[in-house]
# Entry
Amino acid sequence: MGVDNGNKSLLENVVELTDEDLGEPLTYPVDAFVSREYAEKEKDLLWPKVWQMAGRLEDITEVGSFLTYNVADDSIIVIRTGEQELKAYHNVCPHRGRQLVNTPDDVNSVTGRKKNFVCGFHGWTFDLDGQNTYILDKQDWKGALEDKKRICLSEVKVDTWGGWIYINMDPDCEPLLDFLGEVDRILSPFQFEKMRYKWRQWAIYPCNWKTAIEAFMEPYHVSGTHSQLLKYGQFYAYSKPYGLHGVSGFDERDKSQKTKQSTSVTRAGLGDPRISTYELARENYETVNYAASTETLVNAAKRLKDELPEGTPVQDVMAHWMKSAKADDAARGVEWPEITPEQQSEAGLAWSLFPNQTILQGVTFALCYRVRPYGDDPNKCIFESYALERFPEGEEPKTEWVYAEPNAEKWGMVLAQDFDNMEWVQKGMKSRGFRGTLPNPHQEQKITNFHRHLGRYMGVGAPKKIDY
Ligand code: FES
Ligand SMILES: [Fe+2]
# Structure
């Protein structure tokens, strides 16, 4: 796993926690969220060691187009160097260390297209392969710059999965597919590479990046935070680790009620399923900023009460809904991937990819988040959310990263409700009266699994069993 933080005893302690242990009552400390020293250590022990999503392939479609990805003190340039080829470099000139591409804090990602990169300070020049092609008065160095490795850009590992671009600053890192593990098998059927941005927004938010990402790791908060949704159904959830990563999905408090649908994204609400299915789909769509579903799905759900007789069993309502939405999409040139009910069920509702990416997926859409630290401040983060969807070819919307204040007007009611916890969790965790976290052993395993693995990288902070 490429984890070497020189803290062996703690590491062994952590390895003792198995996947099964995550089902036990656990606790973990809050230093990871509030400590400046911890945030400094992340710069050495976490960020340079893990694969991180740096963008989407659709961000850089032409040869020579590039994007920057900043995390903590590091900045990476990802460049499309060929039709099917990407390269990534540290965003720094080897002469005296100027950033090659200026990346201001108030820009989400800098994008552009270049034939070569000319440093703004003394004009050293680099081609797309990172090779130095020009140094003014090179002879002054008396031959010391003849070694190409001394004057080229520093390369960073880059790979792609599901249409996303991932980078890893560790030259000895494991391959991306090994890092993803079972995520690849379980989520590949959704073919995220065929989806495109519908919208993308970001904000600088007053909490630690982990406080923010954890607000989207568990549906246990739905009853308390999004109580308006309770009239549509129950939101009991399961959660489950897959290596570094984790998934959650709908579950039944009453085990006898389990159906194939119960771990899926699609779900009937309470009462007449022809009506509640529509109401829940519409409510989700409209209050999650027109994401977490599609217009096709909502419109097909709206017709259920006209197309099906009263008393149609839930399973038949759901099957009819999916069939007619699929036909509607086919008619406008949007093809659905083949996903079996078993695959759908295993894929659950929402994934957290270690350390800072989340994907809430559907057959033709995904609602995604990424969170990064902001500067050196453990109390601030860069919060980003975007919706992906399958569009008819040529009808993909043109989108840009838009800075949006974290409120209901800009993000929809549901996301605004989530925002309205994060800042106060960040403050609350600092309380002298806080006795330590008590995550739900059934519904919040994604979070404890996250801290289990974070603890392995950081050498501190792993969850421990509670004596009871
Ligand atoms: S710092 Fe880049 S050319 Fe001098
Ligand atoms: Fe939420």
